[in-house]
């Protein structure tokens, strides 16, 4: 198959590289000339484990190339993927579809012969209809089938998620696209990943419903964690106890400082807006959004409590800034709200993150960035684990105790068992462990 991938950001690049690895001929297109030039030199603009090697080997094999020119690759393609951004629109929380629609217009004037146009970007229900309308309005002779094929990649695990998905969802209205999409995903299909064909609107909603459900599941266990602290129960025991029920499932029941990232906050908000517009409010998700927003800042109160009720003039060492490990993504990261709240309370903040410090520096002010966890802890009154990077899973507590002003650890990801920390003379606070 000849594939044009429009948009070489996170989703486009991972999908393009993986599809090339399946043996397809993939051209990744992006308007940003500097990004394309860097990719041609083999430089990957994002941090994603394994992506550099995958891009390099497929580029070398001649299956993966990069260009700023949309017309050429689209005119030759059997399948054109739209993988441009759909950020939250400023002011109203709706998904901003201007990039998707702009690309649809450009595709319309470039397509030749029957072409399957696939929306991979996360888009609200009905966007496929509009993409089809725009293409046919721009070029009434275009012979296209517009398909919805949402992605379910997790940052930091994206290549594995693409190559071994729980399912592939394809929403179509034109039966001709069924064969093409089966061909695109043939290697996965042969590996027994279910290929779920449905109509376009159902497919678009599956993506939002999936992310909203996961966000709700995390928020549920976070509220249970707060309750555990009050009633003397252990949230990890509760998660295990309910997770073994096959109807509930054990995944995404890890309590923490609230979900962040580029997907859950944006997608839950967009679903709430769509539902309100259709006079069918999703109140569980409205509440999820509100509870999660409040939670991030509330985590700072845990730190204040660990410091004896006041952080003014105190030095706080933050380990982990990104919204989760194995990414350099700072979008909607709980660390941002926590650090802001602590600074508002008069604290000095030191921080270390293996990948996120560059992005954090653009979003936060007055933070001292350090070279590792121990440097970060120097003279600190409290050490706070905000993101569970592997580098923080085996800290040398005697060494930390020597360098810190006071041996206090706040573990917002429950990386440690309490006794592993307290036996070194530390005072220890974590999430939902009231026992
Ligand atoms: C999420 C979904 O997991 C993917 O399936 C989806 O494709 C993607 O959004 C998307 O829409 O593009 P991602 O945002 O990369 O992927 O990250 P997750 O691993 O899902 O984590 C999201 C947030 O939830 C993080 O802040 C994480 O720390 C938090 N989380 C996750 C918890 O607090 N507890 C958990 O048990 C799991």
Automatic annotation (TrEMBL):
- Any one biological process term the GO annotation gives: UDP-glucuronate biosynthetic process
Alphabetized Gene3D superfamilies for the sequence: Cytochrome c1, transmembrane anchor, C-terminal (1.20.5.100), NAD(P)-binding Rossmann-like Domain (3.40.50.720)
Q: Which amino acids does the record list as binding NAD(+)? A: 30, 35, 86, 122, 155, 266, 331
> Which InterPro entries has this protein been placed in?
6-PGluconate_DH-like_C_sf (IPR008927), NAD(P)-bd_dom_sf (IPR036291), UDP-Glc/GDP-Man (IPR017476), UDP-Glc/GDP-Man_DH_C (IPR014027), UDP-Glc/GDP-Man_DH_C_sf (IPR036220), UDP-Glc/GDP-Man_DH_dimer (IPR014026), UDP-Glc/GDP-Man_DH_N (IPR001732), UDPglc_DH_bac (IPR028357)
The reaction(s) catalysed by this protein are:
UDP-alpha-D-glucose + 2 NAD(+) + H2O = UDP-alpha-D-glucuronate + 2 NADH + 3 H(+)
Pathway given for this chain reads: Nucleotide-sugar biosynthesis; UDP-alpha-D-glucuronate biosynthesis; UDP-alpha-D-glucuronate from UDP-alpha-D-glucose: step 1/1
Q: Might you give the EC number(s) for this enzyme?
A: 1.1.1.22
Annotated active site residues, numbered on this chain, are 263
**What name does this protein carry?**
UDP-glucose 6-dehydrogenase
- What protein family is recorded? Belongs to the UDP-glucose/GDP-mannose dehydrogenase family.
């Amino acid at each position: 198959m000849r594939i044009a991938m429009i948009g070489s950001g996170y989703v486009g690049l991972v999908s393009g590289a993986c599809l090339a690895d399946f043996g397809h001929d993939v051209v990744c297109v992006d308007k940003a000339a500097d990004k394309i030039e860097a990719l041609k030199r083999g430089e990957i603009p994002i941090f994603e484990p394994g992506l550099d090697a995958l891009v390099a080997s497929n580029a070398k094999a001649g299956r993966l190339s990069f260009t700023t020119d949309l017309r050429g690759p689209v005119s030759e393609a059997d399948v054109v993927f739209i993988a441009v951004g759909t950020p939250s629109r400023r002011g109203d929380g709706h998904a901003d579809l201007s990039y998707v629609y702009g690309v649809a217009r450009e595709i319309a004037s470039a397509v030749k012969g029957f072409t399957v146009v696939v929306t991979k970007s996360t888009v609200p229900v009905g966007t496929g209809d509009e993409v089809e309308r725009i293409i046919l309005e721009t070029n009434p002779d275009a012979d296209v089938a517009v398909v919805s094929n949402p992605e379910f990649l997790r940052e930091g695990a994206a290549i594995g998620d693409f190559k071994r998905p729980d399912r592939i969802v394809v929403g179509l209205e034109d039966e001709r696209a069924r064969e093409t999409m089966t061909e695109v995903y043939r290697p996965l299909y042969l590996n027994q990943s279910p290929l779920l064909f449905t109509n376009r609107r159902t497919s678009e909603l599956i993506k939002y419903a999936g992310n909203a459900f996961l966000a709700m599941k995390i928020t549920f266990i976070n509220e249970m964690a707060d309750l555990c602290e009050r009633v003397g129960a252990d949230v990890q025991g509760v998660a295990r106890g309910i997770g073994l029920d096959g109807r509930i499932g054990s995944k995404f029941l890890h309590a923490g400082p609230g979900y962040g990232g580029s997907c859950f906050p944006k997608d839950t908000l967009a679903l709430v807006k769509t539902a309100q517009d259709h006079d069918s409010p999703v109140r569980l998700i409205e509440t999820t959004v509100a509870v999660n927003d409040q939670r991030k800042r509330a985590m700072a109160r845990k730190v204040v409590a660990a410091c004896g009720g006041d952080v003014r003039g105190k030095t706080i060492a933050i380990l982990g800034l990104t919204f989760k490990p194995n990414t350099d993504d700072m979008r909607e990261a709980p660390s941002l709200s926590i650090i802001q709240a602590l600074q508002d309370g008069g604290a000095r903040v030191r921080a270390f993150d293996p990948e996120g410090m560059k992005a954090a520096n653009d979003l936060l002010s007055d933070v001292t960035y350090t070279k590792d966890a121990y440097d970060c802890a120097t003279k600190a009154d409290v050490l706070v684990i905000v993101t569970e990077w592997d580098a923080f899973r085996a800290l040398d507590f005697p060494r930390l105790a020597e360098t810190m002003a006071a041996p206090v650890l706040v573990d917002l990801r429950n990386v440690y068992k309490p006794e592993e920390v307290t036996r070194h003379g530390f005072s220890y606070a974590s999430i939902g462990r009231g026992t």
